[in-house]
Amino acid sequence: MHDALTRLGRALRLVLLTALAVLFLIPFYLLLRNGLADEADITAPDWTFFPHRLHWSNLRELFDDPGVPMAHALLNSTLIAVLTTAGTLLPASLAGYGLARIPYRHANAVFYAILGTLLVPAAVTFVPSFVLVSSLGWVSSLRGLIVPTLFSAFACFVFRQYFLGFPRELEDAAQVDGLGYWRTYWRVVVPNSAPVFAAVGVIVFIGAWNAFLWPLVIGQDQDAWTVQVALSAFTTAQTVNLHELFIAAAVSILPLLLVFLLLQRYIVAGVERSGIDD
Amino acid sequence: MPINRRGLLTAGASMALLAGCGSNTGRNEGSSARIPHLSHWYHQYGEPGTEKAVHRYAEAYRKADVRVQWRPGGNYDQQTAAALLTASGPDVFEVNGPTLDQIRGGQVLDLTDLIKDVQGDFNQAVLAPKIHEGRVWGIPQVIDTQLLYYRKSLLDAAGVRPPATLDELVDAARRLTGKKTKGLFLGNDGGGGALAGTPLYAAGLSLITPDGKVGFDDPAAARALAKLRQLYTDKSLLLGAPSDWADPAAFIQGLTAMQWSGLWALPQIKKALGDDFGVLPFPADGPGGRPAVPVGAYAAAISSRSGNHTAARDYVRWLWVERTDFQTDFALSYGFHIPARTSLAAKADKLKDGPAADAVRFTSQHGYAQPLLWTDAGRLAYQDALSRIIKDGADPESQLKAVVRRTRAELDRVGKKP
Amino acid sequence: MPSASRRRRRHHALWFWVFTGPFVAGLVLFTYVPLGWSVFLSFHDAHNTVTPSHFTGLANYRQILGDPAFRSSLATFAVFTAFIVPATYALSLALALAVNRLRFARAFFRSVFFLPTACSYVVAALIWKMSLFNGVRFGLANTVLGWFGAEPVAWLSTTHPPWYWLVIVTVRLWLQTGFYMILFLAGLQRIPARLYEAAALDGARPGWQTFRHITFPALRSTSVAVVLLLVINAFQAFDEFFNLLSNAQGYPPYARPPLVHLYYTALGQGQDLGLGSAGAVVLALIIAVVTVVQGRWFGLGRKEE
């Protein structure tokens, strides 16, 4: 009786999960369905689950579109996301370590000053930031797109929490060997912290890839467009070309999905060990 | 030239950007120091060919190296507004304005002497909002207008004649609504955004009177807006279409029998429907009413933070005053606009017959442009009120009272010397 | 040996700044300077300028707080939060519990629920607006309704009933649930197995009782973090609202959270930067107060003292 109930419960759970999984996958399905159909199929009054014919030529059309430099935008986004990720991890992890481990009278004040910026919506500082960056002469440059976004309080916070829980014995051994903070950090701490770097790195990478408003305003030159900006060029044209829009959207998320699926294991491990939630 | 340049930059873009060579918009630097550099912004036009055309015009100019920037993103006005605060914005830019606060804030240059010889040739309705205290702050490029498109066959089948009054429009939309087709498409928001002040003008009123007072503090305003609510409650309106009113797709796909859209949509509709359509102005309402069509123009303006005022002026005069061939090409070869200068409009063959000719006639007889004094604060309050009236059934009179108050406060603000 | 200890203190201070200096410098330049600038603007009449000269004191604050539209945008935020925070919390916790107990296909389900995290709001809004919830007969939601003979619903423009909330809430649920599910999964992994063994010995039945007395309390710190993050994120909501509801003419008067309101009335085209900054400062203060109160209430930071 009890066993039967458990088995029933388990089956029910699996059915529910499967139903939810289908719901979660529907948007991806719509992206592909519409991206590979022709306009008439998309707007047909009767729903078809698959286009009558798969129009792979939509892809070629997308990359050949003279108005939107999609290939170049992909290149820009990759470059920006990679550099942003690297550029965020370094200062944030150093600061996180300093806050977690080096005794200093005002460490708490510094920590709260950093944490406080999490509460400030980006829109609040948007216009002055833009004016600031433009007075530095960084408009339409990679520097302007990347540098102002590098100082993520969130990343710093996660690193601090993680390093607070880092086994002290390892560091103490290094100190006994006469290594200072700097060398202890690089030789002992960093090599043993891969998961947290991976976890934070992926989150930052996603954020950089998906950023929209800042690249739109800073990337004035078409040569500095990112994928999101290129995508918005499709959505805001006077006449909406649905199949091109959807194939562009599909292309824009593909690289991220790959990164995601490949690194997912590390993200989970990183979150587990980083104590984001402590 | 742009293709070469882009090709080069694609190859070396990453390195160039990294090294910081791309760190400005192209002014003040470069090998040939004698030729000034100018950046010229356009908002993204939907019609194929427009972008190539503006690049072509820029290349034809010999006295400066003009770099065209094509701005996507839908919020072009916000992008230029932010960019005008800095020196890394455009030198020359097209603008759905300039706004009163941009003029008052000294963000754009006075262009009066550039067009003084031909000022009378411009369509006076669209030129008026570019003038503040007798000076011209932007040169109209082309006239855009909006119209009511209707499908002749569907009206015939339902035994409906083209509506001549707002009441007839309400009635027609109801009778044309069927199971798969709606009677009227005024935009996915129910009409508030696309129609804006048009129903007020159709009721014989205005947004701001010529002497600078609120123009819709009148019971006729509430009466006209209540009829838009009627359209909504009748369920005659198409709502939530994948593309909005500016795109003729819903009309062409047969989702609606009538649609409010821009003149720019006319070639596409003609191609898809042949002769099976006609155009109308927004119909008159009430005893003091008259038909109304909104007209407006993107204007060429110069940022006062431009590094080279003289070069920018010379270039704007060359393109938007002297090169009438380019002006005609820009208006008529890609999208479908009316040239901003009456002499050019008169010569345009494309505008001489059929619905296009009707459209031109409506703009000259019934055209109204949003006054310069109709600033953002009042406009936003009015849009909100309109949406609440149409969708929530809010009381038009009390809604309009609040808008009148807001508008008066704003008129007071801008009436003071800065 | 006071001088030796002072030297050591100075040595620590030096290293502290070597480690945190670069980050703090960047934060000051790119966050605190613009923030201070915004505060400065909020006390001035700053139409179309970032270097205003006309000091107006608290006038901007009076105007923004007296603006019913701004106050109603705060109410909109409250409604949105009341929907999205419990919904995301419950769904992500439920998913984590279910996925955690799976014996097979665990990685598959985890991936499926986590995958949307990779999507941008731009892409998600596009799918929701143009395909899933478009208001005509070929939208997926309306197609499904059509199978049951119902009329198409204009999801984003119907205010009675406010269907647009369904669109807004589901898009965010889809995008963010997977991330919080991962947080909960991590929390679940850290619960020692002996707790469950002890509970079983005490006669607690698996299922609700175990969850209520063991799992849920053990997830306390995760829960606190999740709720805090959800509230902060809800406050800063902009992207999906903007991409779903705005059009070339503007933004409807409903479903307008504070950031959207400020963008439309002051920080976008109609550049009343003083007024917009005042609103933004008010908003930041509200977020700070809410977060601190929440933190106190949950006893956050207790561990650090």
From TrEMBL, chain A:
<keyword id="KW-0813">Transport</keyword>
<keyword id="KW-0472">Membrane</keyword>
<feature type="transmembrane region" description="Helical">
    <location>
        <begin position="12"/>
        <end position="32"/>
    </location>
</feature>
<feature type="transmembrane region" description="Helical">
    <location>
        <begin position="73"/>
        <end position="97"/>
    </location>
</feature>
<comment type="similarity">
    <text>Belongs to the binding-protein-dependent transport system permease family.</text>
</comment>
<protein>
    <submittedName>
        <fullName>Carbohydrate ABC transporter permease</fullName>
    </submittedName>
</protein>
<dbReference type="Pfam" id="PF00528">
    <property type="entry name" value="BPD_transp_1"/>
</dbReference>
<keyword id="KW-1003">Cell membrane</keyword>
<keyword id="KW-1133">Transmembrane helix</keyword>
<feature type="transmembrane region" description="Helical">
    <location>
        <begin position="109"/>
        <end position="133"/>
    </location>
</feature>
<feature type="transmembrane region" description="Helical">
    <location>
        <begin position="145"/>
        <end position="164"/>
    </location>
</feature>
<feature type="transmembrane region" description="Helical">
    <location>
        <begin position="185"/>
        <end position="209"/>
    </location>
</feature>
<keyword id="KW-0812">Transmembrane</keyword>
<dbReference type="InterPro" id="IPR000515">
    <property type="entry name" value="MetI-like"/>
</dbReference>
<feature type="domain" description="ABC transmembrane type-1">
    <location>
        <begin position="74"/>
        <end position="264"/>
    </location>
</feature>
From TrEMBL, chain B:
<dbReference type="InterPro" id="IPR006059">
    <property type="entry name" value="SBP"/>
</dbReference>
<dbReference type="InterPro" id="IPR050490">
    <property type="entry name" value="Bact_solute-bd_prot1"/>
</dbReference>
<protein>
    <submittedName>
        <fullName>Sugar ABC transporter substrate-binding protein</fullName>
    </submittedName>
</protein>
<dbReference type="Pfam" id="PF01547">
    <property type="entry name" value="SBP_bac_1"/>
</dbReference>
<dbReference type="InterPro" id="IPR006311">
    <property type="entry name" value="TAT_signal"/>
</dbReference>
From TrEMBL, chain C:
<feature type="transmembrane region" description="Helical">
    <location>
        <begin position="74"/>
        <end position="100"/>
    </location>
</feature>
<keyword id="KW-0812">Transmembrane</keyword>
<keyword id="KW-1003">Cell membrane</keyword>
<comment type="similarity">
    <text>Belongs to the binding-protein-dependent transport system permease family.</text>
</comment>
<dbReference type="InterPro" id="IPR051393">
    <property type="entry name" value="ABC_transporter_permease"/>
</dbReference>
<keyword id="KW-0472">Membrane</keyword>
<feature type="transmembrane region" description="Helical">
    <location>
        <begin position="218"/>
        <end position="238"/>
    </location>
</feature>
<protein>
    <submittedName>
        <fullName>Sugar ABC transporter permease</fullName>
    </submittedName>
</protein>
<dbReference type="Pfam" id="PF00528">
    <property type="entry name" value="BPD_transp_1"/>
</dbReference>
<feature type="transmembrane region" description="Helical">
    <location>
        <begin position="12"/>
        <end position="33"/>
    </location>
</feature>
<feature type="transmembrane region" description="Helical">
    <location>
        <begin position="107"/>
        <end position="128"/>
    </location>
</feature>
<feature type="transmembrane region" description="Helical">
    <location>
        <begin position="163"/>
        <end position="186"/>
    </location>
</feature>
<dbReference type="InterPro" id="IPR000515">
    <property type="entry name" value="MetI-like"/>
</dbReference>
<feature type="domain" description="ABC transmembrane type-1">
    <location>
        <begin position="74"/>
        <end position="294"/>
    </location>
</feature>
<keyword id="KW-0813">Transport</keyword>
